[in-house]
# Entry
Amino acid sequence: MWIKSHSIITKEATKEQMWKLFANVNEWHTWDEGIEYAKMEGEFEKGNHFFLKPKGGPKVKIELVETVKNKKFVDLTRFPLAKMWGDHVFEETPEGLKITTTMKVQGPLGFLWRRIVAQGIVDGLPTEMVNQAKTASKL
# Structure
């Protein structure tokens, strides 16, 4: 299994604002430049799913496998012969809100999907997470 994490600490956004940002899946394209669209029907809760179309890539189905309001959510994308999890945690600390994103890829073709998808996500996390906090601070 391949695992990479990135964390930031910010005073710009609260865990409630971060949750609100992510729970509004249909608006992700307004703050994530790499997304053409994301569409979800229903609530941002375990068992539900949404479709995401990255710019220049195919539409993928992403399942919410764990949600703890204002604290954490885990999403799962299934690829041929591999799975990719995105683990997103919001933790209050004395220094500010610690936001951690961990990407995991597992499966016989995990090495391929890591190169095609996951590595690009991880490489963009430092900038993307700062932008997420700035956007969430306005909610």
About this structure: The longest strand covers residues 82-93. The CA atoms of residues 100 and 128 lie 12 Å apart. Residues 2-136 form a domain with the Alpha-D-Glucose-1,6-Bisphosphate; Chain A, domain 4 fold (CATH 3.30.530.20). The chain has one domain: 2-136.
